[in-house]
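Record format v2
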Amino acid sequence: MSRIEVLEERCKGCLLCAQACPKGVIAQSERINQHGYKVVEAAAEKKEECIGCAFCALVCPDVAIHVYRTPKNVKEEETGHAG
Amino acid sequence: MYQEELVFGHPASMTDHYMHYCPGCHHGVAHRILAELLDEMGLADQAIAVSSIGCSVFLYDYYKVDCVEAPHGRAPAAATGVKRARPDNFVFTYQGDGDLASIGMAEIMHCANRGERVSTVFVNNTVYGMTGGQMAPTTMLGQKTTTCPGGRCQEREGSPIRMTELLSQLGGVAYAARVAVNNVKNVKKAKEAMRKAFQAQLEDRGFGFVEILAACPTNWKMTPIEANERIASELIPYFPLGVFKDVSQEEAC
């Protein structure tokens, strides 16, 4: 499973990441950080759909997104279908 | 169980200093690409940055490299001195369009023409950002700024200057390209163009120049997403992307 970590104290809520996400995982949250920006988050109901493509992190102007990826199970790795 | 791995994190040569740029400003993307290249090319220990005046004035806060702060527009002249005094170091300048294309026009032209072994990252957002959105030499025709409130007029203020095309005519330039960072594809291309510009210096071929089309949502009076879209709809048709000069090893003097 893949996931993103939004560094909320760096995020400025520009939403360029939300636009770049091919799965529409990212949305604006209701939380406001110490600088007064409404930060983004991986929406709870769509979190599972993250494919770890890192497109969001590539377009983020504030280096506010870290992307984690977990290799799929061994069977897939052996047959060469691992993601 | 499998350990999850970090596939995208903070570049090692970049400090974790909070960036002062406005939301949606492309300076941040340009900074990150540059830091990633310093890491990947192993230049972090030998790099010396020469920063400019403009929004990118606080460059020294964001990189773990030595930095010289040049007077307005004079970064290429300062970089010439740095490189000649320390030829084994990797020297780059990072300038905006108000700095490079206006007050610093003479310095960049002669630095490029002499073929100084330095690299320049030129961030073109068509406006003077830091001082409050005045007209720059690169401002688009019809674009409203605080010093041309009716929109830039060709009769009165001339046309936007295409710096990459101008510089690609000069003999000392080894690599000149224009890129954008408005989408994932362009970000990846921008990184490769900057890598080639840096290699021109490392391989002692000449001056390397990369122009990055960037958004300035604050002074364009747009949301970050609208400003990002303007790059593709208005800027790229006038400032075409691509490599304008790439001199191979054999041709270099």
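Chain B has one domain: 27-247.
The mean pLDDT of chain B is 94.
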